[in-house]
Amino acid sequence: QVQLVESGGGFVQAGGSLRLSCAVSGRGFSSYAMGWFRQAPGKEREFVATITWSGGSTSYGDFVKGRFTISRDNAKHTVYLQMDSLKPEDTAIYYCAAGKTPYGGIVAVATGYNDWGEGTQVTISS
Length: 126
What we know:
Helices cover 0% and strands 53% of the residues.
């Protein structure tokens, strides 16, 4: 059974930080890109960040502007999203996703992922 379990969400004030984690089981991890997406109420799902299977390349949504860092630990089958300088507009449910194609490159669209977590709520107060 494939499981992607996010954790680390919460409620913080603007300017604060959170570190999200996503533990993956039941499928390949080390050979696949991993991504983070988010969805705010009334808005479409939005690309946040992705990291290639080796961790050698990363890509971020335009709104990130150097505030977030994606990383992975292939030995622990876990991907992380360090979020700093958080803003109220970062409030959303954050989802991690596991890529479809092994040994691929950057995957910055949702259609490139075939397994998703349930999400973790991030709420930023002003």
